[in-house]
UniProtKB/TrEMBL annotation:
Belongs to the methyltransferase superfamily. METTL23 family. SUPFAM superfamilies: S-adenosyl-L-methionine-dependent methyltransferases. GO terms for cellular component: cytoplasm; nucleus. It comes from Crotophaga sulcirostris (Groove-billed ani). The lineage of its organism: Eukaryota, Metazoa, Chordata, Craniata, Vertebrata. It comes from the Eukaryota. Keywords: Membrane, Methyltransferase, S-adenosyl-L-methionine, Transferase, Transmembrane, Transmembrane helix. InterPro entries: Methyltransf_16, SAM-dependent_MTases_sf. This is MET23 protein. The chain crosses the membrane at residues 6-23. One of its GO terms (molecular function) is methyltransferase activity. GO terms for biological process: methylation.
Amino acid sequence: VADAQYGLYVWPCAVVLAQFLWAHRDGLRGKRVLEVGAGAGLPGVLAARCGAEVLLSDGEELPRCLRHCRRSCRLNGLPRLPVLGLTWGRLAPPLLALPPLDIILGSDVFFDPKDFEDILTSVYYLLEKNPHAQFWTTYQVRSADWSIEALLCKWKLKATRVPLHSFSADKEHLAGSSLPGRHTIEMIIISLATPDGT
């Protein structure tokens, strides 16, 4: 990685999540979508191009990433797409002021285990505020020791695995790009658990 701010790159997980959005594009029109840890914003930009009402966000302490995300919006013909500074685990005014949401997107946000609980804390807050919303996320399997299972239980969240072949993302090259390559990518949909834990 050439820069400490990972959000300046399109990562393999972003291409896989974008493929999922493309496969479900007919259902995106009018949906209210927030992309967290957007970086270059590929999934969120695609959702906006498919007719969703999108907000992009990345860490408020990463101004270079936020500028890069805004530039990506301009280059994709979406100069007015809002880009917010939101930091995982922090209940700051921008997070509290978010409008109602239907979908939360996050590609490769489960990158560093020290951030896992902060991410799920923010996701839990958003899902509690929007009980019918879902968090659609893709992640790269980097270590068998890294798991969010215990944190999902702690925060009363459930995860449903989405097989990549179900949306034609089980290939080394998607949409004319060389990504995702030979990386092991997984996709899950996270939602609030029901009172019985399911």
